[in-house]
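In the previous lecture we treated proteins in isolation. Real proteins rarely work alone, and many bind small molecules. This record shows how such a complex is specified: first the sequence, then the SMILES for flavin-adenine dinucleotide.
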Amino acid sequence: MTRSELLQQLAVPQRFDLAVIGGGATGLGVALEASQRGYSVVLLESHDFAKGTSSRSTKLVHGGVRYLAQGNISLVREALHERSVLLHDAPHLAQPIPFVMPSYRWWETAFYGIGLKLYDLLAGADGLGPTEFLSASSVMARMPGLKSKGLSGGVQYWDGQFDDARFAIHLARAAAQAGALVVNYCGVTQLLHTQGRVSGLVAQDDETGQRFEVQANCVVNATGVWVDQVRQLDAQPSGTTIQAMVAPSQGVHLVVDREFLPGDHALLVPKTADGRVLFAVPWLGKVILGTTDTPRSDMPREPAPFEEEVAFILNESARYLAKAPQRADVRSVWVGLRPLVKPHHEEGASTKGLSREHTVSVSPSGLVTVTGGKWTTYRAMAHDVLSQCLTSQLLEVPDTPSVTAALQSANPSSQPPVSLTTPQGMHLYGNEQAAVAALPGADNWLLPGLSEAMVRFAARHEYARTVEDVLARRSRALFLDAAQSATAAVEVAAILHSEGCTHVQLSDYLSLAASYHLPSTNH
Ligand SMILES: Cc1cc2nc3c(=O)[nH]c(=O)nc-3n(C[C@H](O)[C@H](O)[C@H](O)COP(=O)(O)OP(=O)(O)OC[C@H]3O[C@@H](n4cnc5c(N)ncnc54)[C@H](O)[C@@H]3O)c2cc1C
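The predicted 3D structure, ligand included, written as tokens:
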């Protein structure tokens, strides 16, 4: 469907079973699961799909070694199962990757090794490979970029990694294929109430300003760190001010060249100088270093890193990597906001924390809010949301059971596995490679791994509207090398124009790319 056809559909007077607000991992997961169960679904996203936190993760599909250390066994087991479902469903976008935990103190190998053996046990049949105890020389063979001085050994274990933004687009397309109407750049500005119950919403097309009234039996607020803004819209008719449910915390990632961590293994430092976890993960031809966990009171669309966060990541990396990255080596810096759920937000609402990681709550008017959790468990969260909708009688039990518990992938798992550590390219298109190659400009490379045909495919089939949509989320050029990505912006804009996109926002992109650079000095 073209954009104007999507908007025409949205304008048709109808009543949906479910309206989802927010097109990140959580909202897209709910829309997909609900449409697969046979419900009529509309999903509205104010910006681009995954423009929020869902394109800014560490890109791990993981059980969460950290939660294991906290003794949260059921959470880890659930995430390990979801990890294997996600890896199976999208092998062109998600792959296993071995992690090495180096030991610089004699007891660490045994201590962490035993914990990771438990990780294997919890994974059971979902395991990706056995945990192995390594000598110092085996660690260096796997990870030649590591500092060898004082190294006593290490442990290798397995987790997964993925392309978060492309996977989000994959979910949006799968939901649309299952019958959902999914629309980006169409934010929800108002909730509609009938006799005190939420009965629909008003959304506005970003490009034309056109307003749409949408009726729905059940409205799900899946807006990540922004859930309280939508909860406030819900409370408006009664004139009450809601108590905030979310306290955002930001995480910074720095991207450097592969020469700082050669090889195909990721590094996990289980305890940094101040007790945090640090990752160095090869991804799409670069290395991601991160992350931080810094509370902040505001929630900007493009959060900037704090200077001390950048210093923390560079200093910690310098403790482990033989060649320490400097500020000038950083190709891109991106920041994500984690929605942390406050413990006592539920005044006046019936709340059910269905898992410790995410929360689903229903307001007195029937607005269902879901937040927290992680990318890996998006599907389990969707299940919990739909269970809550059924329990609260906002949805009826469907006539047809769920088509499948797993994602009905447009790219079935018969695809040959691809490595997510190698640079971007056609292999990330799974079984759609021939369709991309058939478009004009298949041999016109705008950047390494980004052809004119890929831009056309993004505009025609992947909901891309702007230069940023293409360079940040259909391709990951902005996240990999901000300066290099800017060199393709003019050409991307021209191709999008020729595909009928009218609001490509070229100059906004150039400013954005500049802001993904670290300033060269500390000032
Ligand atoms: C630094 C960091 C690293 C992480 N790393 C990992 C990892 O490696 N693995 C993992 O499994 N998880 C990870 N996570 C967690 C994971 O990224 C998040 O749990 C997940 O992306 C949250 O998705 P979401 O859909 O709830 O929120 P978001 O992705 O933020 O989506 C919410 C959407 O709602 C939209 N919206 C807001 N208001 C409106 C409105 N009025 N109308 C319409 N739309 C609206 C926003 O534009 C946004 O797109 C990480 C999180 C952080 C912060």
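Summary for your notes: The first strand starts at residue 15 and ends at 21. Residues 21-27, 44-47, 51-54, 57-60, 62, 187-188, 222-224, 226, 230, 251, 291, 336-338, 371, 373-376 surround flavin-adenine dinucleotide (CB under 6 Å).
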